[in-house]
Each structure stands twice: as structure tokens, then as C-alpha cells.
UniProtKB/TrEMBL annotation:
This is Uncharacterized protein YndB with AHSA1/START domain. It comes from the Bacteria. InterPro entries: Polyketide_cyclase/dehydratase, START-like_dom_sf. The lineage of its organism: Bacteria, Bacillati, Actinomycetota, Actinomycetes, Propionibacteriales. It holds the Pfam family Polyketide_cyc2. PANTHER family: BLL4707 PROTEIN, SRPBCC FAMILY PROTEIN.
Amino acid sequence: MPNLIDTIDIKASPEAVWAVLGDLAATTDWLPGTVNARVDSGTRICVMADGSEVHEQIDNYSTTARSYDWQHLRVALPVRDSHGRFSVLTNDSGGATVVLEMQFVPIDESVVGEVTTMIHGAFHQSLESLRQFVEHGIRWNAALSPDGPQSG
């Protein structure tokens, strides 16, 4: 079972980062491909640009610890039992470090390396998009807009 850990430093207070990351329906601002999001009975449902839906069970949500656990109930990835944790920490410069941890089981073990590389790249892109939104107000879909960057 691959165990991925990715981090990104954000030039904002941990509280400001948590205000975005902890708002479970705000993924439309920063999570690439997300066009609609809602939370229903502890499940975050994200509608993606291609019409697919990602369902995540959210557990251990803590404003004090600035973290939550998630488990994919439905996701368009070649994996099963995918789950992880988002955490927002204070870094040495007084800004925030976001930690994204994930574990999963590839459906096809023969391509574990390729699947791991793909997922790691997508998760890093998500963290970079979060950084751009928090630091500059640039939404993930800014480059798609005919009017240029859109701020939140």
C-alpha cells in the first residue's frame, strides 16, 4: 500500500489557510477540476468538470488541530481503499505548511509505480493550487477564463 506525503509552504497564517481548507465546500476555489461541492451528512461530494463525482467521507475534523481525515467512497482513480489526512501546521517563518497524506491500494498491482506517480502529481498540483488561491486569490480555473485570472 503506497503511502504518499506531500507538503507545501504557504505565505499566510495557519488560520487563513485553515479558513479555506477547513471550508469543505470551498474546493471549487482551489481544487483543480471541481465545479461544484457540497457536504451532506459528513460526506463531501465534489462534481468535477467532466461530470464525474468524488465522494469523500470526512472524519476527525478538528478546528483546533486544523486537520481532518478523508476516505474516498467514490473516485475516478484506479485505486481502492484510498484515504488520508489534511493538516495545516505553523512553520518556522510563521506561515503555514499544509501536509497531505494519502494511502491507497492500486486496483492493478502491476502498475503501482505509474499510479503512485500520477496520484502524487495530481495531489501536488492540488496543493500548489491551494497556495495560489490563499496567497493571491487566484482560483484553479483562472487560466480557463476568457477574461483572465479570477480572484475569489
